[in-house]
Every structure is written in C-alpha cells, then in structure tokens.
Amino acid sequence: MDSPSASRSAAAPAPEGTKRSLAEWMQGRIARYETRTYDWDALKFQADYDPKYRRAQMRYLGTGGTGVDADSNAVPAEHFTFSTMVLPPGCEGPLHVHHDVEEVFFMIRGKVRLFFEKDGEKWETVLGERDLVSVPPGVYRGLVNERDEEALMCVMLGSPKPTIPTYPPDHPLAKIDRGKKK
C-alpha cells in the first residue's frame, strides 16, 4: 500500500531541512525489481582476464564493493550496500578481502561453494537456498558455482561506500589495473 491507513498514527516526518513530503522522501528510497538491470560490466575486468569470473550485479542500495562509482537507479546508501549477484554455472568469484567492512552473502537460489583464508588457515563451506554467511573484515573470501544451473545471491556490505577489495598478492588479478567504473 502506498498511502498510510487512516487508522494509523502520524508517521515520522521527512528529514529536517527538506521540503519533501514523507511520501516523496520514501518514494526515493524504493528500488523495485522491474526497474533493476543486471550490470555484467561491474566486474568485467575480471571476466576479461578469465571468462570464469563473469558475474552480474543488480544494485538496490548503493554501489557495493565492485568499484562502480555511482548508480542513479540505486537507492543512496547511508549505512550499508545491498545488491544481488547472478552466478552463472561454473563461475568463480576470486579470492578477495575487504579490510574495512563485513560482507554478508545470502543465497536466494542455487548452491555455491565458498572458501575463506586468514593467517594461513583455510576453510570451505557450501551455501544453499536461504543460507547466510557473514564474513568479517580482513578475511579473504571467494566462491565457485560448481552446478549446471545459475545461482542467485544477495550481497550486503557494511558501509555506504566500501573500499575496493584487494586480492592475494600472488593472485593474477592483483596485478590488473581496474581503472574506475562508472
């Protein structure tokens, strides 16, 4: 329902200093699926290096940690980012680390194998539908979709503009100039 019920008490006003009504303010905070598009270019530098890294991001809140500078179609992030990722069969998300934020993966559809590294220790797990993992800052993480079907995963990062992740120094992607993504 787009308008409040008459029996409800008054809703919180729009932020001070704005001339927008609550309805106008809240309309700008909605990201509907039918207006989203998959961005296969957000991580194109990885897929250009090796097609197994091809994945798509669909942004809802903020731009995530892919290096995309802005997305006027996404709700502006205030405290965290939220997107979905399409993971084609056989794709890999290369081992990377976010030093500044927690990253959460929530599986909507399919299964993926996730792998983690920290201080020489390694660990793996499989996430299936409706499974979630929270990865603390400073822990390397990566994934692979070993199935013959596409997987769909939500990704949330604990900052409105996280720094671009880095790769292990010996990983080939660590040597690639990513440039700025718009």
* Widest sheet: strand ordering: 1-2-9-4-7
**H/E element order:** HHEEEEEEEEE
Radius of gyration: 18 Å
Q: How large is the count of helical segments?
A: 2
- Largest β sheet strand count, sense and barrel closure: 5 strands, antiparallel
Nearest-integer average pLDDT: 88
What portion of residues is helical?
under 10%
**From the structure provided, what is the oligomeric state, counting identical versus distinct chains?**
single chain
Mass-distribution shape: globular
Unreliable runs: 1-13
Q: Which secondary-structure class do the elements indicate?
A: mainly beta
The total count of strands amounts to 9
Q: How much of the polypeptide forms β-strand, as a percent range?
A: 25-35%
Distance from first to last alpha carbon? 34 Å
Description of the structure:
There is one protein chain. This protein has 182 residues and is mainly β. The chain has helices at residues 22-27, 44-49, and strands at residues 56-61, 81-87, 92-96, 103-109, 112-118, 121-127, 132-135, 140-144, 151-157. It is 7% helix and 30% strand. The longest helix has 6 residues, at 22-27. The two termini are 34 Å apart.
Q: In a few lines, what is going on in this structure?
A:
With 182 residues, the protein is mostly beta strands. The protein is 7% helix and 30% strand.
